Amino acid sequence: MSISTQFSVPQRMERLPLTSYQKKIFYIIATAWFFDSMDLGMLTFVLGSIKTDLGLTTVQAGLLSSFSFLGMFFGAASAGMAADKFGRKIVFQTSMILWGAASIACAFTQNVQQLALARFFLGLGMGMEFPIGQSLISEFIPAKNRGRYIALLEGFWPIGFIAAGILSYFLLPIGGWRLVFLCEGIPAIFVLIIRRMVPESPRWLADTNQDEKADMVMTAFEKNVEKAYGKELPPPIKDDNLVIGKHEKKFSFLQLWAPGYKKKTIMVWLLWFFALLGYYGLTTWLSAFLQEAGYSVTKSVYYTIMISLAGIPGFFSAAYFIEKNGRKPTLIVVLIGCAVFAYLYGTASSLQTLIGFGLGMQFFLFAMWSSLYAYTPELYPTRARATGTGFASSVGRFGSLLGPYIVAVVLPTLGNSGVFALGAACFIAAALSVAILGEETKGRVLEEISA
């Protein structure tokens, strides 16, 4: 009897050692996080210049920044359902085409309406990528390594954010914000090519009863792992928790609210909404706040880059602690840290305290991202992982959409300190949702968690 008839795809997948082959797939998927972070982070650095160049009011600038998140709202929700129906790979590739084309289009827009439309389609492509990338990493990496690698995946976010700042720092004085958008869109061609190396998820194929294709993809995957490993693979794991139920009824949106999933869905939607409302409400305006405080464009970009450097040890710390202490406690701690330092940043009265509190804030903000992305895809079964993750991300994007606009509206009344206190309250609300409704998923295989 062959291995394909004796053992399920998860039984075969979970026994695989982690090799350079899985790491290569990880880094290819991670390019999405890096370049998407550059695109979103870029607005932090060029919003002040766009506002001045196009003669926008504070409210209009807030609305413009919200258009990317409006696109992400629709992209995350639609991509999740599409990926669970048509497969991870095709949707992942489509998102790249949308993102690259829209990023380049931003450079050639002639007015704020055209720029807003381009930012919407850019957000649509980015919104599609996030739930698919999370699902693929969750389904390719064994349980004992999964949390750390999803957290490391999110680590490409601060690196991309810092790269956006460096690009802005050197290009803004030369060609303005249009040159910045053009240069960051060019790598899309390279990324589109290398993504063809990522296989379809054999877990998804098996779960959708495409057994022959699942076996073919899984066999090729095993051969590549064995080649990288340099010796014979260990035998598959005999564990009933790793057997996929055959011919199950397809998972619909309404089932996110069925017994067994309702509590998870409420928790993760609250978590994403408040976490992203706080994050984007604050970070989108960081450089613009500094410009309004009297710092030049170049100085404001420089200081924003400086405090963002703390995000790198932030995500490394999260990657370590989510495996050591668990997803739930780590997420609660980093959200509380976000709240404390966001509030303190809003009270900073000198450049020294601004940078000091800013470093603490960015450390915890990027640790939050790592923990958030490690936790979410583990809460739903394979047949609904992209759907559940996609709708959670979509709800978060709704918070992202509201954040910059709310800040633009309340800033004249509350001032910087009031805005950052409001952001701190959002992070506390997110922490409470996890503390009260969350469950721990550390070290558990996907099929066991979602059983």
TrEMBL record:
Predominant localisation class: membrane
Record PROSITE patterns: MFS, SUGAR_TRANSPORT_1, SUGAR_TRANSPORT_2
Keyword Transmembrane on entry: yes
Q: Could you tell me which species this protein originates from?
A: Desulfitobacterium hafniense
Q: Which GO terms describe its cellular component?
A: plasma membrane
- Kindly list the GO molecular function terms attached to this UniProt entry: transmembrane transporter activity
Q: Per the database record, which ranges form the Major facilitator superfamily (MFS) profile domain? A: 25-442
Q: According to its UniProt record, where is this protein located?
A: Cell membrane
The UniProt keyword set, sorted, is: Membrane, Transmembrane, Transmembrane helix, Transport
Which residue spans traverse the membrane?
25-50, 62-83, 149-171, 177-194, 266-288, 300-322, 329-348, 354-375, 395-414, 420-438
What is this protein's name? MFS transporter
